[in-house]
Amino acid sequence: MTNHSSFPRRREPRFLLGWVPACAGMTICLLLASPTFADSDLPAARWANQQLPDARQEAQAKALMEELRCLVCQGQSIADSDAELAGDMRALVRQRIAAGERPEQVRSWLIERYGNWVSYRPPVEPVTWPLWLAPILLLLAGGWLLRKRLVRRRG
Amino acid sequence: MSRLLRFLPLLVLAAFVAAVAWRLGKPAEEEIRSQLVGQPVPAFALAPALPGRAALASSDLASGQPRMINVFASWCVPCIAEAPLLMELKRQGVTIDAVAVRDRPEDIAAFLARHGDPFDRIGSDPESRLQLALGSSGVPESFIVDGRGIIRYQHMGPIEPDDLPAIMREWEAAR
Fold first, then answer.
1. Which of A11, A59, A111, B162 lies at 20 to 30 Å from B19 by C-alpha?
2. What is the SS3 assignment for chain A?
3. Residues with Cβ < 8 Å from A123, sequence gap 6 or more?
4. Rounded to whole angstroms, how far apart are CA atoms A57 and A62?
5. Nearest to A57, CA basis, from A97, A91, A27
6. Residue A4's CB: how many other CB atoms inside 10 A?
7. With an 8 Å Cβ cutoff, are A84 and B75 in contact?
8. Are B62 and B150 in contact (CB under 8 A)?
9. B113 in helix, strand or coil?
10. How confident is the prediction along chain A (155 residues), in pLDDT tens digits per residue?
11. Which residues contact B41 (CB under 8 A, 6 or more apart)?
């Protein structure tokens, strides 16, 4: 958090004299401080950042990891996230695929635990019909508008 | 008709702005609850997190008596705030087992020596596998498992003094 009240309102030379060491001191403090959101010291899980030897399995795992949502840094996929839990999820995906599971089995194992939220690929079910229909309806609406305009021009 | 159509874009914009304003005022729930509440605990067997200390397995949980599983870590700052409340729950008769996520025995021992040790069994989960199997998305979290091994309750984040009555209610209900 920045403390706005300590910022000098007017730029006077005397203020500047104190400002430089204050800035240096703050920088040192920031460099020395440890973040409050701690991570463990343990190294990443074996398959978190290491590709599977079988290229086909690795491709399957990678495609799935890009469609699974990170639990701690919501909005990123586990393929993109640096969070430890995302690393452990990548290891889980690779271990299960290396053990012969199909990607969809791994996905549904996670959905059983975290709900559809964890997958970036929404299932086709009544609740999500608007989501799947919207692009088609919008394209049709666009085509209809365009057609009206073209017809009018010709006329 | 075309007059009305002329206002359609404005109406769409107004609806969009209203939707965004509503969501800004009432942010979406960010907690991802485990879908396993009401389901049996998945089968697991963890190694002991401390030498000489009882480990934790799913077979320990269907013992006829409810148990609480506390997912914690020595590197987790909110877990320090939660520690005295776990001691209080133990005092009130709650049996608490622990899952130490991504942790080292010496760090766990130091944490328990400093902040109290309310735990019966402590299992080690070095790659967050049990955490993922439970549908837990962070530390600390606590689950109440009934005597038949069914997960009855999930508490996300550190337990705070205000949470104790609700947790004791769930504990009594699981008996």
1. A111
2. CCCHHHCCCCCCHHHHHHHHHHHHHHHHHHHHCCCCCCCCCCCCCCCCCCCCCCHHHHHHHHHHHCCEECCCCCCCECCCCCCHHHHHHHHHHHHHHHCCCCHHHHHHHHHHHHCHHHECCCCCCHHHHHHHHHHHHHHHHHHHHHHHHHHHHHC
3. A116
4. 9
5. A97
6. 6
7. no
8. no
9. helix
10. 333 433 344 444 555 556 666 667 777 666 665 444 568 888 898 899 999 999 999 999 999 999 999 998 878 999 999 999 999 999 999 999 999 999 999 999 999 999 999 999 988 888 889 989 999 999 999 999 999 888 866 55
11. B58, B61, B62, B134, B145, B149, B150, B151
Q: State both tokens at A146.
A: 């365009």
Under DSSP, the state recorded for B120 is: E
In the three-class reduction of DSSP (H, G, I as helix; E, B as strand; rest coil), residue B127 is classed as coil
Q: Mind telling me how many Å the CA of B92 is from chain A's nearest CA?
A: 30
